[in-house]
Amino acid sequence: MANICCCKYVFYTDDGNTDELTRLYKNLVTIIQPPEIKNDYEPAWLGNVATWHGIDWENTISCRGSIELLGGYELGNDYFTLYSDTAWSPTDELWEAVVTQYEGVSFVYVAEEPGMGIFTNTDSEGIYLSEKYLIEIYGNAPIPEGWYPDQDKPECLEIREYFSDFEELADYCTEFTGQEFSSIEELQSYFSDIFNEEDDTYASIHEFTAA
Asked: Which residues have CB under 8 Å from 42's CB, separation 6+?
């Protein structure tokens, strides 16, 4: 069974002409609503997106996944969002082939698939997608001594937060650990020293990089 890669795409136009972006959005709405394309798959299957656009997915492009949510869109907006779950990795080639049919439309995305070590954000300027770091801590280990010095300790470790820059991440970690951090490496080393496999606790900091 394939690992699931969770993706958030933003389709946009930066030339002021939203007609083609609107056309793409309306086509996607049509595709994912049955029974426009009849086969053994769910309407939101990515292969239906390829078929609609005349793309030979069987021999050239992976479509192992589906559209999980198509964000709302108002006429005149210069972007819209789309969420998909795919097997192992993002389906870049599919969407690159799709947007070639819509003049002036581009896309950026954030993708997560921990099992494959995929933490990708192609929006290097953070215009639409600001995710740069992700901290995850959860498990059954006792809360370390000295944590939460200025607030009540929670009953269990359950942390999952995104940050747009290192300073924001470091400040957040300082609040609950009482420690100061000057680099991502220092943060990662700190948590790996505190928790290990025997603790039955997962603690990790992921950095999103460009594909």
From this structure: 66
pLDDT of residue 1: 46
Compute the distance between CA of residue 80 and CA of residue 158 in angstroms, rounded to an integer: 31
Per residue in 159-199, pLDDT (tens digit) is: 999 999 999 999 999 999 999 999 999 999 999 888 876 66
What was the pLDDT predicted at 26? Answer: 94
Contact 144/188 with Cβ under 8 angstroms? Answer: no
Instruction: Find the DSSP H helices in 53-112.
Output: 92-99
Name the residue type at position 43. P
* Phi and psi torsions of 96, nearest 5°: -65, -40
Please count the other Cβ atoms lying within 10 Å of the Cβ belonging to residue 78. Answer: 14
For the chain, list the domains and their CATH numbers: 4-121 (3.30.70), 133-207 (no CATH)
The residue among 44, 26, 25 whose CA lies nearest residue 34 is 44
CB 2 within 8 A of CB 64: yes
Helix residue ranges, H only, the chain: 19-31, 46-52, 92-99, 166-177, 184-194
Q: Which among 149, 181, 152, 150 is positioned nearest to 168, based on CA atoms?
A: 181
pLDDT of residue 14: 87
Percent of the chain at pLDDT exceeding 90: 66
- Yes or no: say if 4 and 87 are a contact pair by the CB < 8 Å rule: yes
Residue found under tokens 């009953």: 155
